[in-house]
Every structure is written in structure tokens, then in C-alpha cells.
Structures
1.
Amino acid sequence: MYRKRAFYGLILVILTACSSGGFDRSKDEVFAPGIAGKSDIDGLIIGHRLMGAGEYELALKAYTRAAAQQGLNVDTLSAIGSANLQLGRLGQAERWLRRATEEDPDFPPAWNNLGVILMEKGEISEASEVFRRAFAADNGNSDEIRDNLRLALANLENPGDNVLDENQNYNLIRRGTGDFVLLTAL
């Protein structure tokens, strides 16, 4: 007898919980979850970590969310362009990075990444000029930008020699306020 009562009680609880009103809701009230509050997590930081982990598509989504929260500033434009570069979408990456260089002409990572794209496309002379701008904007502080400029100039001077090696492509991405982290291009 106890088992029958427990079984019927359990059925009653399940049916009550499964009804549209639940346990406490009145029949005339519409139930919908609330809006999620503003996230404290910076999409750029998440995107940078995903880029470091080789998850470029997820990084692009994180950068896009960051752009929705912060607006299209030089950081988000450059980050979206860099993620597209890693995904091999050179045309899209070039458009984003050109917008970033227009937004802030003194932002070295955007210039450097644009130079990497131009090297990939075989536009060596423009790439060398872009790397010069990156080097000047960085005041010569980055060895990586200097190496990219050297490679571009070597390819410009000796177009017949294949000086550009696949393992020597570098992509410079800005993290935080002034730290630069190298990610190799695939």
C-alpha cells in the first residue's frame, strides 16, 4: 500500500512540475527567462587565448562579440583581421586590417599583419612599405617586425630567389595594453 501511495505521489509531483505553470506560477502569467547581464569577460582576451590555442574560428567569434560590445575600434578590427588571416581568408583579412590602419595609423600589429597578407599574395613591394610603416610605428622595438621587413626587402631585391620560407611568416597580435605575442601563420 505504501508503494502505491509513493508512486501516485511521485506521478503527481512530476505532472505538476511539467505543467506550464510549474509549482508556483499563476495561469495568467507569462514565463520567460530574464536577460543575461553584461559579461565581465573581455572578448578580446578570450579571442587571443583561442588564437594561441589554434582555435581560429572560435577566436573570430569571440572577436566579433568583442566588436559588438566595444565597437569597431583598432583593437577589434585588427583582431578580426588577424583571425581571418589565420583562417586563410586573405581578402577578408586584408579589408579588416586596412580599416584598422585607417582607424589608427600608428598601430604596429595591424600594419605588420597587413604586410604578412601582402607577402602571402605576392605583393612584395607594397608589403615592404607596409612593414616599414609597422617598424616606424613601433620605433624599431620589435625584432619580429624587423625580421619581417628584412624578409620583404630580401624578396624585393632578389625576386628570383625564394627567400620567403613557410616557417618564417609571422603574425603579430596585440594583447592587453602593450604586450605583443607572435603567432606563426599556417
Note: The chain has one domain: 43-184.
2.
Amino acid sequence: MADALTVSDLYAGYGETPALHGLDLALREGEVLCLLGRNGAGKTTTLKAIMGLVRATSGSIRLGDLELTGLPAHDVPRAGVGYVPQGRRLFAELSVAENIEIGLNARRKGDAVRQRVLDLFPVLRERLKQQAGTLSGGEQQMLAMARALCLEPKVLLLDEPTEGLMPSMIARIRDTVSSLRGQGVSTLLVEQRVEAVLPVADRVAFIDNGAVREIVDVARLRAEPDLVKRYVGV
């Protein structure tokens, strides 16, 4: 199976403060790979570095054969990487329809893509005229994912998508990620809680102090729960 996204020997940080120290990661086509680690381990920074929101000081980030390292941040989504940041970052004063339109415009997608995205999140069809800021937490997460999927991304980056959601909404988010895998979308998922990961991930990458220490299949993780204690401290 080919790699959809390859991160090699990546160093990145904030100003003079390094956060990633030679990070290596390969996301396969059509898989869900979860990044697990303690707070401050570098999970969110990894996603931001891929998106060009944190500057890489050395190393390589490749989407298939395309080198992303050094691209302006606004060109990374156009290349085919969708990003749902922690906290969703919706345009709260705009309507659901307007938020979706912003996603469509990034890669000049039209109504066929809009309809496919709304098919994934039927509740948003009923909320198109509603202000995004007035949606429930779960509906806001769906809208953030819908906006990212309007790019028709090859790779989707999700930063703690189940945070603060009710169990029924968490199940819907998981179902959506599984559905996207069936469509060939590769997903890099940051989570804090291993129980949120096991039902949907194919592999788990443990990150510590800005580097990936070990990547394991979910089956092995189920068989060796001490791995979680070692890297996450739970």
C-alpha cells in the first residue's frame, strides 16, 4: 500500500522554541492513523507543521509525490489536505451554508461536492440558514469536518474531534471517519483518550518529546495495554 503522506526527519517549533525533533511518520492510503501522547508531546504541532502553520526548520513533508515543506499555508489545503483544528475554528457569525461555501471555494468545488458532504451530515441540511455559533458542540464539529471535506482532500487531519462531545455524537464522528476510509481518504487523528481511538484507528503512533517513538497496529495495542501507560501515562 502506498503512502498518502510522508513526514521525514521533521524539525519544527515556535520561534526559538523547538517542538518537533526529527519526527518520522507515514500515513498509508485509506488508513486511519492516530497520534497518541501526553499533553505537550507534539501532536497538535505535527498537524500544524503539515499545514504550514508552524514553520519547519528542516525535514520533509510529502503528499504523495508533492513536497509540501515550505509551501505557504494557504496552498496546503489547495494541494488536498483538509484540517479540522482543535476548537473547530468556525466562522461563528456566518451561516452553516456560508461556512460550507468557504470550504468549497478553497479548491473551487461545486454543488455536487456540497451535496456529497451534506449526505454525510444530514443534520446540517436542516441548519443551512442557522448561524454556526448557535449550533450544538456536536453539530459544530460536523460542520468543521464538512467544511474540510469540501476540499475533497486526499488526507484529512483531525485534532481531538470528539473532545467534549456526548457519546452519541462521538459515535457519529467515528462513523464518518470510517465512511471516509471506505472512500479512500487517509486520516491522521489526534486524540487524548485511547478508548476514543480503538474503534476507528488502523494503527497508533505514540509521540513523545516531539518524535514518534513507536507505531503499532490496533490489534497489538489491545493485546498490550501497557503501551498506553508507557507513552500516555494512563
Note: The longest strand covers residues 3-14.
3.
Amino acid sequence: MDATPRWALPLLYAGQAQKEVFHNEALALVDALLHGVAESADLAAPPAAPAIGGCWIVAAAASGEWSGRTGMVACWTEGGWRFVAPRAGLSLQIADRGHALFHDGTAWRASTIRVDGLYLNDDRVVGERMAAIPDVGGGGVIDLEARLTISAILTALRTHGLIES
């Protein structure tokens, strides 16, 4: 192998006074974490046939080769499993969730930006875009039109999660 599996970073060749061992190990880990994507954060046991370059966040109650590695990033390489202890600020896109997780220095947390909206403390505060509220027309029955428009505004705000339902 002359390049890492995910980002094709070049590896040193043997015969350089063992420097290649450390350099290649570092490149394998950089390759796993640079613009990182984890397949899942919900597996406690290693998958049966992982692809080279595949990574997972080890779930609680880890077993098998992942035993004792809860919360770590597990990456499958040609040399077997490589584990990285997360640090505050590490962010990985999670393929089976459709959004990122980030490490706050203590635990993995869900990203505030997800495909279905913006979240604060896991509460959705902004949802998907809705159709525009139509302009008020006419003027024959101002009170009725005003009430319908205000109702449409409140419905939009509630749907987006900006106000309580």
C-alpha cells in the first residue's frame, strides 16, 4: 500500500530506519479523521466485514475488539482496528443519522444543524421552510382578514418551532 485508503495520502516506504512505522500510523489516523465520516455511533461491537477506511464511534457497552473503547473513534485499516480518543471540538458526520456529532470534551453531542432544522439543546427551534403567507387583499372585512393573516403567521412560527404550540 503506498497511500492511505480514504484520502490517498502518501506513505513512506520501508528502509528508512523505522521512521515509516510512526509516520504511516500518523497518516492513517489523519486519513480517518480529516473531514471525518463515521458509519454509525450506535454499534457496541465491531461490524463483521468492515471496509478499509471505515470508521465508527464506539457505543456504550462495547464488546469484542472494541471492549473498553466506548466513545472512541474506531477505524478499520489494513493493519486492523485503530482507535482515536476524541478531543473537544472533534466533529464527525454520522452516515446513518444524516447529521454530525461533535465531542464537547466529555461526551458526543448531536449537531445543532440537521437536515430537518436548527436545534438548541436537542429542541428544534427552526424547521423546514414553509410556503409564504399570502398578502392580505381586499379590505371589505378587515377584522376577518387580519385574524386569518395573524393565524397564518402563528401557524408558521409554531411549525418552524420558533414559538410553543
Note: Strands lie at 37-38, 55-57, 73-77, 80-84, 91-94, 99-103, 108-110, 113-114, 117-120, 123-126.
4.
Amino acid sequence: MQGVQQLVTIVPWTFIATICNLFIQIYLIKRFLFKPVNEMLEKRKALADAQIAQAQEANEQAQAMKAEYEQDLLEAKTKAGEILQSAQKTASDQAEQMLREANRQAAAAKIKAAGDIEQEKRKAVDEIKNEIGSMAVEIAGKVIGRELSESDHEKLIDEFISNVGEVS
């Protein structure tokens, strides 16, 4: 049992050497292993944070561009509506102006035609009056058997015309 007891017994110098060895290993591991690993982890964390910040910034820019695009689209729709409305108004105004011009021309043509008809009517009546007057003078001359003077001729024509005018 003494051999087993020797294995379990604590030798102070070995114990102190083991503890010193443990502290030296902890220091070396901390210095050469944990410190570089922590530095690498910090760099990765900083890189990840930078990428997240960039992604957020890109997202904000995308949102701003989207809002600007939507605003531009709304303005374009509004402007297109205004252009369409203006074109419709212009077309309506032109159609109305053309209609007024056509009505004016039709009225002018109607007035001119009425004037022409009246003038032709007067001309025809005058021609008929002259012919009837001439015929009446000839007939009257034959009936009376004498030649009428110019003043008698005028008097008969006027009398006949006034009688014809009253009848018509």
C-alpha cells in the first residue's frame, strides 16, 4: 500500500512546479492563441458590422430611389393627364371654331343666294314688265289705230306695270 500511497501523495515541489507549469501554459496559450483568435474574431465582427452598415445604407438608398421613382411616375402620370386634357380641349376648341366658321359661311352663302334670287327675280320681273309693256303698247297702238307718243307710251307702261304689280 505504500506504493499506492506514494502515487496519491502530494509532493510540494512537484505540486509547485505543476502549478507554475500550468500558469506558464495559461499565459502562453492566452498570449499566442487566445489573443490572435480574439483579434481575428474582432476583425470579423468589425467586417460583419461594416457589411451590415453597408447593406442598411444600400437599402436606404434603394428606398429613397424607389420613393423618387414613384414620385417621378406620379408626376409623369399627372403630366400625361394634363397633356391629354389639353389636347382634348384644343381639339374641342378647334372643332367648335370650325363649326362656327362653317355656320358663318353657310349663313353668308344663304344670304348671298337670297340676294341673288331676289336680284334675278327683280331682273326677270323687269324683263317681263318691259316685254309686256312693249306688247301692250303694240296692242294698244293697233287697237287705237294710231301711233302713241313717247310720253303716252311711258304713261301706258307705268299704268300697266302698276296693274300687274297689284295682281302679282
Note: The first helix runs from residue 2 to 8.
